Request: fold
Amino acid sequence: MLTEQGLVKIVDFGLARIVSAQSATQTGGTTGTVGYMSPEQTLGKPVDQRTDIWALGVSFAEMVTGQNPFWRESVPSIVVAILNEPPRAMDGVPLELQQIVYRALSKDPNKRYQSCGEMLSDLEMARSHFPGLATSVNASALTESIRPIEFQKYVDEASHSAWVPATVAERNKRKMTAWLVGGVIAIITLMGLLLVGPIRKRLQGGSLVESEKHIAVLPFDNSGNDPANETLAQGLYMWTRATRKCCRMPSKR
Reply:
C-alpha cells in the first residue's frame, strides 16, 4: 500500500514465515502464490531472502512490462515456465532495468541478488541515468553502465533450466552415497570374518582354505591268485588301515 506520505508498506503477511537456522536447512510444504514463487520454492527446497528477491523481480517486471514474466494459462504451465523457461521479453524497457530484472530472476539463487541492498544500489544507479524516467526514456540507447558480456550473463542465468543442475547434483549425491554404503558394508563384512576363529587362523596362516592331503589304502593285489598269498594280502591291508587310523600317520609317509 502507498501511504499519503509516499511510503510503501506491506500489509499482507498471510504467506510470510520466519526463517530460522532450522527452517533454512530443512524443506517443508510448498506454499506461495504460484506466479511469484522462486524455482527453489516451487521444488520445495529451503528458502531464504533470495526467494523474496525473486518475487520482487517478478513484481518489477510486471511494473515495467504490464504482465507477469512467467504467466501461462494453467498452474502446471506456470511452474514449468518458472523452472525451465526464460522470462518474457521486455521490449522497450531500458537495458539498465532489464539487467536488474534478469539478475533478480536468476534461477540459481547463488547467482541472484544476495540482498535487497544490492538490488537497491543498482536501482539507484539506473535512476541516475534517467532523470526523466517517469515521463520518457530512450529504451534503445545502450549506456556506459551496461556491459554487453555482463548483460548477456544475467540473461543466460535467468533463462537456463533449474532442473538440470538439481538433477546432476542429486545424481552425484546418490553415487557418493552408494559408494559410502558399499564401503561400510565391505568393512563390516571383513571385520566379521576376522572375528571367526577358524577363518582368522587360516587368514593368519596365509591361506583362506587350508590344503589337506589324503592317503587312500586299497587292498593289495594277489598277483597270480596264489591261495598262499591271499591271507598275507588281506592281513597287510587290514594292518595298514588300522595303523593309519590309530597312529594318524602323516600323509608324506
